[in-house]
Amino acid sequence: MIVEDDEDEPEEKPRRSRGGRGGRGGGGGGEGRGRGGRDSDSASSDEDDDRPRRGRGGRGRGRDEEETGEEELKEGVVELLGNGSGFLRVSPPEPSDDDVYISAAQVRRCELVTGDAVAGPVRPPRRSERYPSLVRIDTINGRSADEVAEGTPFDDLPATLPNERLALGAEDATLKAIEWLTPLGRGSRATIIGGPRAGKTEALRRLATALAGQEDLDVTVVLAGVRPEEVGDWKAAGVEPATVLSFAASGDAQAQAIERVVETAKRVAARGGHAVVLVDSLTYIHGQAARKALASARNIVDGGSLTIVATADLPVGGETTVIALDVALTSTGRFPALDLVASGTLRPELLVGDAGADAIAQARAAAIG
């Protein structure tokens, strides 16, 4: 795949982003990652590369005045910036002077995500540039870029019910109850439901903290329709949200923010990775938009997975797991505050075995009785 470099690079190297694939934390690739570089409005990444380039006080020059020299092949790990461009980190995880700039056009055309292993020829910096640039992308995660680009669309990939439990390994009473009574698996489609002050956000935040430390998961948190004060609570818990919209944002804006993050996670899963998107919440977006976002979760046969866990007042529909919280238990400080009658996981034996499924059934029967 010939995806030519066609953009100016940022003048300053951004700070290392938080999150990404392989050792991730709260945050996913793309939006809200990293700082520095140009504003996205100034990047016209599909333009030809023969427009003038100007440094500080320097004179512009076009492609016919570029330096000549052999192209050096380099490989590294992609780290995306907030403006759509990125860097090829040749000595991850820390930035170095040998890192290579990747244009936003290359990112879009190859649908790169943070954590992709990429290789290709590199050209030296031009007069107005500080970093070398990737000329084209030859391979992505060890496969031909053409092969990756022509792969089966995510929505057409065969899916199966979650069959590998997400081990939380926490001593927290709520998380232990979720893990064994309403188990989640790679590819689960889950909602945490309950009325106001039932503790939905707190449960999701504890879940995010437990999952963020797992190296093979790409965990991204989306806060849509939240109170401004809640953002600080997430950061204090060590989780950096990828996207934040307050309850003042329109339902359409919230739905679009969630969709952007889900689309990035779908690319991770389609390439064999395991992505987790945590959303707080689906309450203020249109019902169809909520179902569309949740429907993206799946366990791909012989491949990756996309797990989505979102808070909502009521079930959205199509969940493989519903975690219902009891307001009365939460308000009186009795934890875990699960409503076992309203909670449940589809085919729990696939995640906890037959003995575990029997234990869940007995616990529910006791709650009913």
Short structural description:
It is built from nine helices and 16 strands.
Please describe what this structure looks like.
It is a single chain. The protein has 369 residues and is α/β, with parallel strands linked by helices. The protein folds into 2 domains: 40-149, Nucleic acid-binding proteins (OB fold (Dihydrolipoamide Acetyltransferase, E2P), Beta Barrel), CATH 2.40.50.140; 159-368, P-loop containing nucleotide triphosphate hydrolases (Rossmann fold). Helices cover 26% and strands 20% of the residues. The chain contains 9 helices and 16 strands. The strands form 2 sheets. Strands 8, 9, 10, 11, 12, 13, 14, 15 and 16 form a 9-stranded mixed β-sheet that branches. The protein starts with 71 loop residues before the first strand and ends with a helix. Mean pLDDT is 82; it is low at 11-68.
